[in-house]
Design brief:
alpha/beta; binds adenosine-5'-diphosphate; binds magnesium ion
Amino acid sequence: MLRIKNLYVSIDGKEILKDFNININKGEVHALMGPNGTGKSTLSKVILNNKKYKKEKGNIYFEGEDITNLSTDKIAKKGIFLSNQLPCEIDGVTTADFLRTALNEKEENVSLYSFIKKINSAVSDLNMDEKMIHRSINKGFSGGEKKKNEILQMKVLEPKFIILDEIDSGLDVDSLKIVGENVTNYLKEHKDTSVLIITHYPRILEYIKPDFVHVMTGGQIKKTGNYDLALEIEKKGYDTYKNNSASIVSE
Ligand code: ADP
Ligand code: MG
């Protein structure tokens, strides 16, 4: 579903991603772990073609199509969704208005009734205050509320490919459980959906079970394994993987 080949990315002349490769098939959950500043968030933004980052080399394919240079808007319409590590505040646009507009762009003729039903059920699943969807997006929200608001958007927009960048940071134990269970339940109902989840902690992976866990250091994946690798990282830290040579992406 998503394939990244030999990707090199820089910002202000500084090389961040160096020969980054990954291949994510339909319905797979991939966890990406790595030390601070290694380029995980950069990768998530580059997939959506954030223009701040310069792609020096390499390609990104989605469902077989080269989307490397497609506009962010078109990439989002293809069904790639990013929950940002630091969700931005958008003054003057409510979450409800944003989602209604976005949904109408995606599917024609979404009735107001079915939209309200959908958003209200997501609000209730996430145990959110229903007033929040009528406030400016993320304005004055706590860290945890912003993360829930991202998952709310995911549930309403029903993307095919989900990138969750540190969705677990800033969540209290109850909210972590709610967010984890909401993503898991979503995946049960959307079996073809794939996930790239960036995290530092195995806790969220107890809910969102990964098929693969990757260790990223120095701007590339150094080791790939299963859930046990996440536990190994928690015990040993990242230093052991620093000198590994880059793993080869299976064809
Ligand atoms: P991670 O998410 O793995 O912690 P990031 O992708 O956020 O790492 O950052 C990787 C490196 O790129 C860091 O050294 C960071 O300071 C730098 N970087 C990322 N975005 C920018 C930016 N917009 N301007 C300047 N430097 C950036
Ligand atoms: Mg990050």
